Amino acid sequence: MNAITNEFMGALKGILKTRYVPDLPELLENQTPEQNKNKQISRAFSAFVLQSKLGISAREAAQAVVDDFKDNGIDAIYYDESTEILYLVQSKLKVTESFKQADAQAFVDGIRLLIKQQFSEFNANVKNRTSEIELALDTCSHIVLVVAYTGDGISDTAITVIKRLISDEDLQEERFNEDISHFTAEDVVTALRIEQAYQPVNTKIKLQKYQKISEPREAYYGVAKLEDLASLHKQYGKELYEKNIRYYLGTRSNVNQSIKATLANNPCDFLLLNTSVYTHYKSLILILSVVFRLSLNVMRKNGLNPPKDNLKFIIRMVLSILNMSLTLLQKLKIAF
After folding, report:
1. What does DSSP say about strands 142-149 and 85-92: parallel, antiparallel, or unpaired?
2. Smallest Cα–Cα separation from 91: which of 65, 130, 122?
3. What is the pTM of this model?
4. Domain ranges (residues) in the chain
5. CA angle, 332 then 189 then 276, to 5°
6. Is 293's pLDDT higher than 50?
7. Contact 297/336 with Cβ under 8 angstroms?
8. 189, 251 contact by CB (below 8 A)
9. Residue in 55, 180, 47 with CA at minimum distance from that of residue 111
10. Contact (CB, 8 A) for 12 and 188
11. Which of 68-82, 158-172, 256-270, 320-334 is the least confident region?
């Protein structure tokens, strides 16, 4: 698993600062202005996780944070009355570090204290919510342990420590969910991208010289007019591309690696697995020409005839442009 990139970390910190920090509990100890700023952003990460996972308001999520000195490894406590689920969160906002055994051990030790309602061992953020937390512990049907991190994953020993707590019969707590709820660097990226996502574009486009193939799966292919694609670009702009521009993630993401592997190892599958339209306006003719030639070459090599008839038909499609920039780059690298 890859750690979050600097670009996404910068975007995340910007959201943490503006959306959650204003509603966080006050810092219990005052440090230098720079230290306070960094601490607040770090604390806000748990709120981001809760809002992303549960769909609660930013204010609710921020007020669930208990992260500060003497938090005993628990960064946020949130009880969902509608589902009777108590969420206990530990988060780690560091690119260079994975979630390690020491992090898990602190989390586990704090949970043991909380389950036993030893509130005197906690900071004021927990003590001020004693009645609320007592009620949650008395009425919840499930307890979900959430671990969030922006680094390159969680160690096996950390998972073992948490699993040991969940299965500990001496604690006499049967409401723990068996599965740890992870919020990874990839989940952070997904959440950030969803925030910027545009609605799918529903429209029509004519496909000429079309032909149908049935194997290895049913599909149609053909030619779209350049002016029709240019019109879509003018009408919808970023809505066609923004959500799925992959070069922003770099070539190391799982999806981009799969695109590369398909082109290199199974080119006959590529046309069917990557049905996409590229409409970068000024370079449209060159790119479409390259893509179409490559597609035809793949068809011919695999015994598929290019379209010959002049029939036209209307395709109703949901145009959310997929597999764009990096797909084309990978094609060009392999072709040339």
Report:
1. parallel
2. 65
3. 0.63
4. 6-194, 200-335
5. 35
6. no
7. no
8. no
9. 180
10. yes
11. 320-334
